[in-house]
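Q: what sequence does this backbone want?
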């Protein structure tokens, strides 16, 4: 539903694991949703009908546990006993270039397990790239979701975004055009 409305849709974090796995790469012990292959295929097919690009990681940071140190890996290097816990430097640079040319950004969900500083760099750098553009008013930034709000609160940049929503799932459903019971009742 969002593909016709956006030029670039960047999928990182736990959601990206599904796409990485769909593309034939191993994801080790990473989080993954079951039975989402049909939906992922549909997403890629729909994006071909619009000028929307689906971007997902080229490289990642992995660890054997959530408390581990980070190792940079290309997608074809992830071992069975590793977990994807952040985006890698190539992916981060690609995202920052997209932010640099964007006039509007909608951000929902951290890029990694930011609770461990070893896996927080992707999320922190995305936040910095958006807030830098916000300071010169060359971007309109919308942030949604509890984890994303926790992240931007942690690094004390919540005031640097134009709109912040704490209603993660409902926020995305509203943007998709779904009818929300609370809003329906108000109308």
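A:
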């Amino acid at each position: 539903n969002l593909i016709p409305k956006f030029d670039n849709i960047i999928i990182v974090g736990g959601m990206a694991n599904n796409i990485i796995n769909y593309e034939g790469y191993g994801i080790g012990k990473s989080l993954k949703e079951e039975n989402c292959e049909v939906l992922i295929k549909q997403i890629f097919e729909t994006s071909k009908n619009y000028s929307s690009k689906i971007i997902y990681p080229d490289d990642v940071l992995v660890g054997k546990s959530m408390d581990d140190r980070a190792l940079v890996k290309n997608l074809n290097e992830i071992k069975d006993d590793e977990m994807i816990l952040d985006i890698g430097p190539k992916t981060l640079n690609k995202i920052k270039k997209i932010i640099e040319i964007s006039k509007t950004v909608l951000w929902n969900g951290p890029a990694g397990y930011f609770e461990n500083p070893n896996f927080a760099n992707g999320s922190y750098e995305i936040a910095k790239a958006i807030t830098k553009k916000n300071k010169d008013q060359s971007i309109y930034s919308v942030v949604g979701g509890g984890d994303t709000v926790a992240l931007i609160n942690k690094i004390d940049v919540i005031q640097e975004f134009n709109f912040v929503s704490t209603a993660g799932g409902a926020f995305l459903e509203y943007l998709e055009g779904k009818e929300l019971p609370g809003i329906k009742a108000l109308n």
